[in-house]
Amino acid sequence: MTANRDSKPAGTPQSGADILVQCLIRQGVEVVFAYPGGASMPIHQALTRVRDRIRTILPRHEQGGGFMAEGYARSTGKVGVCIATSGPGATNLVTCLADAKMDSVPLVAITGQVSTPVIGTDAFQETPTVEICRAITKHHYLVTRTEDIPRVVKEAFYIAATGRPGPVIIDLPKDVQNRQIVVEHDDPPMNLPGYHPYRQARREDLLKVMELMRESRKPIIYAGGGILAANAAAELRAFAERTGIPVALTLMGLGAFPASHYLCLHMLGMHGTVYANYAINDADLLLAFGVRFDDRVTGKVSEFAKHGKIVHIDIDPSELNKCKPATVPIASDIRYALQELLKLVDAGLHLAPGESPGSRYRDWLRQIDHWRQTEPLRYVDRDDAIVPQYAIEQLFHLVRERGWLHRTIVTTGVGQHQMWAAQYYHFESPRTWFTSGGLGAMGFGLPAALGAKVAHPDCLVLDIDGDGSLLMNIQEMATAYCEKIPVKVLLLNNQHLGMVVQWEDRFYRSNRAHTYLGAGPEEGPYPSFVDIARGFKWQARQISDKGDLRDALHEMLDAPGPYLLDVLVPYQEHVLPMIPSGMTVRDIIKA
């Protein structure tokens, strides 16, 4: 190993923990989110020796650290890193790993483990971490030899970042961390037989896509988070503009195509726009790019897009034909596929002889315009209360007025506020919207915002949250203050588990089954989020009058440090439109 300013001279023994940290530096890691414990103390001691190279942020709960690493990863495209100790520290990361797996987030989680001689003896704070996490990680390692650390770390980062991104866990026993060895190769060869992450569409398959496009008169693009993971937003926009095909986005795909673009139909699915769902239902060709046909999009799968042929392009071949059979399934990096499709489009292969692109979909777009005009997103505003949709709209307008749209990142928790944010805050740029889409993990919003803000200190980072979700990881307010991470939280406080209340109203005759979070009407709103926030040395304000909203939003946006705006909203509001689970566009609820 060659000497540098961070490492000992060549031939000098190093501990496994120091070797691990040097490997992280070699992978370009600048920030780790790490909570120490007995089985991970050597790693933390090693991190103190590289303070000038790696910033270590101490969360107040391992789940918070995992979600911070996700926010960091999703906003940068780099691999996020979180570290925890053995036993409960490792199990507290399970939700984050499952979330990263579902939403294809590149993550490396490093956990301490009890020493190898006592593994399997139910030693203090021992859990079988790899066995617990096997099904919710892309790959996993239990390292039993210090000599293997350089190879394992190199492989872990490669696997996490390539192909379909995902989480990798490295379980590192304490004796492996402490053992001192001489590292002979700091860049060892990887041993990954059978792992082939780079897939490129074949020309003959792309020509089949051109053939289907020539036959189509009512095509639609169905684009998801794979566009963002592949950094293919520019290619998606070029493809849509050159073909004139409208674009509907998944929850995870918001920001992949500008919301203000004429061809954008915004979000589709359970709480998507009526016009996006109508268009999918009537389309004769569905171009599915970087999506997985999630049940929240399809509803009753047999009825979804049944009138059209389907082209499905995704980097993960296991997604092809998994939920919905495709006429042309293509396993490929979506950016490469779009670049090659654009060449064919520029050659006019998607058009019939003598046909002009401008007139091809005129009738189809006219029909979509009719749906947009007659079935827009709508809600009933009130003068006596602040309805949550209005609060989010006003926030969006203020951010746009200030010219901050392209440098503002929005995160959310999970529930009604999440769906309203997706509907009424319009995203113009990729990697500006982060939410727990596949797993639906409450408590995601605040720590994810912290991770994104650490990665982008010059951006405004907003967590639009609900009271139920915020309480899940509210302790991370301490992290924000102590680490000087000035995020903003717009709290839509309805004192209830709002989405569950909505389902109670729609499907259980409004029978309340433990969905009220308050202490009782006579005590007023509970808990006092303003007092909690101030206890963590945040600035905070609570409002309930509609006339105070705009001023309060300005105050939040202008605050120099972390700020919580607690907006009291009525709990009777429902997220609409809504296609009930397992049903079809014919069953859509509009009011």
How would you describe this structure in keywords?
591 residues; alpha/beta; six-stranded parallel sheet; 20 strands; 37% helix
Short description:
With 591 residues, the chain is of the alpha/beta class.
Separation of the first and last Cα atoms: 67 Å
User: Which residues sit in consecutive blocks of at least 5 with pLDDT less than 50?
Assistant: 1-6
Percent range of helical residues: 25-40%
Largest pleated sheet = 6 strands, parallel
Q: Report the count of strand segments.
A: 20
Approximate shape: globular
SSE order and pairing:
Elements: E1 14-15, H1 16-26, E2 31-34, H2 41-48, E3 55-57, H3 62-76, E4 80-84, H4 88-91, H5 94-103, E5 107-113, H6 129-133, E6 139-142, H7 149-161, E7 167-173, H8 174-178, E8 180-181, H9 203-215, E9 219-223, H10 225-229, H11 233-243, E10 247-249, E11 264-267, H12 274-282, E12 285-289, H13 295-298, E13 309-314, E14 328-331, H14 334-346, H15 357-360, H16 362-374, H17 388-401, E15 408-412, H18 416-424, E16 433-434, H19 445-455, E17 460-466, H20 467-472, H21 476-482, E18 488-493, H22 498-507, H23 529-535, E19 539-543, H24 549-558, E20 563-568
Parallel strand pairs: 2-3, 2-4, 4-5, 5-7, 6-7, 9-10, 9-12, 10-11, 12-13, 13-14, 15-16, 15-17, 17-18, 18-20, 19-20
Antiparallel strand pairs: 1-8
Helix pairs in contact: 1-2, 1-7, 3-5, 3-19, 9-14, 11-14, 12-16, 17-18, 17-24
